[in-house]
Design goal:
Elements (H helix, E strand, L loop, with lengths): L26 H8 L7 E4 L4 E2 L7 E4 L2 H9 L3 H10 L2 E4 L7 H10 L7 H11 L17 H9 L5 H12 L3 H8 L17 H15 L7 E5 L5 H10 L2 E6 L2 H13 L6 E5 L10 E7 L10 H9 L2 E14 L10 H7 L8 H10 L3 E7 L1 H17 L1 H8 L1 H19 L3 E9 L18
Parallel strand pairs: 1-3, 5-6, 5-8, 6-7, 8-9
Antiparallel strand pairs: 1-2, 3-4, 9-11, 10-11
Helix pairs in contact: 2-3, 3-17, 4-17, 8-16, 9-10, 15-17, 16-17
Protein name: Class I SAM-dependent methyltransferase
Keywords: Lipid metabolism, Methyltransferase, S-adenosyl-L-methionine, Transferase
Family: Belongs to the CFA/CMAS family.
């Protein structure tokens, strides 16, 4: 049975007369051709066409023909992102610093279908093949993975390529991150005792949870790999009297963190170095924390990564690995095109079972695992609120396109955590000795 929700503006030809070019389809015609029913959001376009309820609280406006070409030439999230970042796709009814509500409504109110071959061909002929010529992407977009390889950056997760990937995301602007992340300058999932916690309280809760799981005590040595702006390093030194070393591949992060350490009078206990984790000192640390680094490592590199951390722990020492994971073990490790090109180039996620197995196979005894999925959704909502509150200054600092990228990616990630498309897992392991000594008590020695 043929659906009545279709566009049909083609005409039959008369024998003996030249075939006429099909009428140019409107943007609304195209939307109707690729959706199963009327969308619950209002979609309007530069050609005056519209589809969807007129009183919808949220709307999309395709402002230019270039925006339509972006969407048509890169189906899925990449084309929409290109059009949005460039300003060729406007979102109505939400702030660009937090388009969460628009993404939520699109996820539930826009059901896509693949048009029949004949219908697709008629649309393309009506539009003209030139409309399917990809416009140059916005300047915020990184090159695709295959071009990174042939451009001399090396294979995925080579040292130089990892450094470039970290630079792309983390060296945007320290001032921008201060406005988005807040005073804690912490760019990882917080832990909320309840939803009334402020973002700052929740980040302190997270650091206390990590410290508790690692059983940190005054005088111990902590190595924090992928330390960012030194949040864990400073917290451990200030609150637990720990001698803490942090390492990061972002030069801007390292400079900011070391300045903060000296400003807070913690230089006798804490240090942050611009250093690859693979070059961290081969000392025997009492504990190692990895908070948000594993996503950048590459799944195939888990054994080498975890082996490097194990070799830096003394016998009986503890490792706390905190990272985003996939909820579906059958899904690809590689990210979607938008995340790979605009947010985390070369990032990879594995399912929690794969990560637990990797920790186990690296000769750690797995002692505890915890999923903080909904905590990350709350964390991202807080970052979006900060971006909205500081929007004008953020745009002045990094430009409108980059500010739009961050608003879109944080809101989209929040929705993904809420919908259980991705998760956040903490895994605690001990470097248990050959004769079974782990220094781990019969029951957890931290406050859950």
């Amino acid at each position: 049975m043929t659906s009545t929700y279709r566009s049909s503006n083609t005409r039959g030809s008369v024998p003996g007369q030249p075939r006429r070019r099909p009428p140019v389809p409107s943007v609304a015609d195209i939307v109707k051709a690729v959706t199963t029913r009327e969308p619950t959001v209002r979609i309007t376009a530069y050609d005056g066409s519209a589809v969807g309820p007129e009183d919808a609280a949220v709307g999309l406006h395709v402002a230019t023909g270039r925006g339509l070409s972006y969407v048509l030439t890169a189906p899925g999230d990449l084309g929409l992102a290109r059009a949005y970042v460039s300003g060729d796709l406007e979102v109505k009814g939400v702030h660009p610093g937090d388009p969460y509500e628009a993404l939520r409504r699109l996820a539930t109110g826009l059901q896509l279908r693949v048009p029949a071959a004949g219908e697709a061909l008629r649309l393309v002929r009506g539009l003209g093949w030139e409309r399917l010529r990809p416009p140059p992407p916005p300047p915020q977009e990184a090159t695709p993975a295959w071009r990174r390889t042939i451009a001399g950056l090396g294979l995925r997760h080579a040292r130089g390529r990892d450094a470039e990937a970290i630079h792309h995301h983390y060296d945007v602007s320290n001032r921008f991150y201060e406005m988005v992340l807040g005073p804690s300058m912490t760019y990882t999932c917080a832990v909320f005792r309840d939803e009334t916690d402020t973002l700052e309280q929740a980040q302190a809760n997270k650091y206390d949870l990590v410290a508790g799981k690692l059983a940190l005590k005054p005088g111990q040595r902590l190595l924090d790999v992928g330390c960012g702006w030194g949040g864990m390093v400073r917290h451990a030194a200030r609150e637990y009297g720990v001698r803490a070393l942090g390492v990061t591949l972002s030069k801007e992060q390292a400079v900011w963190a070391q300045t903060a350490i000296e400003r807070e009078g913690l230089a006798h206990l804490a240090e942050v170095r611009y250093l690859d984790y693979r070059d961290a000192p081969l000392e025997h640390f009492d504990a190692v924390s990895s908070i948000g680094l594993t996503e950048h490592i590459g799944v195939k590199n888990y054994p080498r990564y975890l082996g490097a951390l194990r070799d830096r722990l003394k016998p009986g020492g503890r490792l706390l690995n905190h990272c985003i994971t996939r909820s579906d073990s059958r899904a690809s490790h590689k990210p979607g095109a938008f995340i790979d090109r605009y947010v985390f180039p070369d990032g990879e996620l594995a399912a929690p079972g794969r990560l637990v197995s990797a920790v186990h196979d690296a000769a750690f005894e797995v002692q505890h695992e915890e999923n903080l999925r909904l905590h990350y959704a709350l964390t991202l909502a807080g970052w979006n609120r900060n971006l909205v509150a500081n929007w004008d200054e953020c745009v002045a600092e990094v430009g409108l396109g980059t500010a739009r990228v961050w608003g879109l990616y944080m809101a989209g990630s929040r929705l993904a955590f809420e919908r259980n498309e991705i998760q956040l897992h903490q895994i605690l392991g001990t470097k248990t000795t050959k004769d079974g000594v782990s220094s781990y008590p019969l029951r957890p020695d931290w406050t859950p």
